[in-house]
Amino acid sequence: MALLITHKCINCDMCEPECPNQAISMGNEIYEIDSDRCTECVGHYDKPTCQSVCPIDNTIIINPQHTESNEQLWDKFVVLHHAV
């Protein structure tokens, strides 16, 4: 599943530089996550690093519109990073 940054975002700039997939960028008002690039840090970390560094609880959540299995997240990681 891709993650989603909610309206609770305070634009603190903590998440964007920590994303290993470059999936986070500034939107019109708050940071946004590109679901095509988000692997929930599969292939990099044990848990999503953006959630770990976000200072506001429950600001970065699972995006219900982009559900993916762990296998799909791994496949996306391989494509993004040309891993074999």
UniProtKB/TrEMBL annotation:
Domain 4Fe-4S ferredoxin-type: 1-29
Keyword annotations: 4Fe-4S, Iron, Iron-sulfur, Metal-binding
Superkingdom classification of source: Bacteria
UniProt-listed Gene3D superfamilies: 3.30.70.20
Protein name: YfhL family 4Fe-4S dicluster ferredoxin
Organism expressing this protein natively: Rahnella inusitata
Classification of source organism: Bacteria, Pseudomonadati, Pseudomonadota, Gammaproteobacteria, Enterobacterales
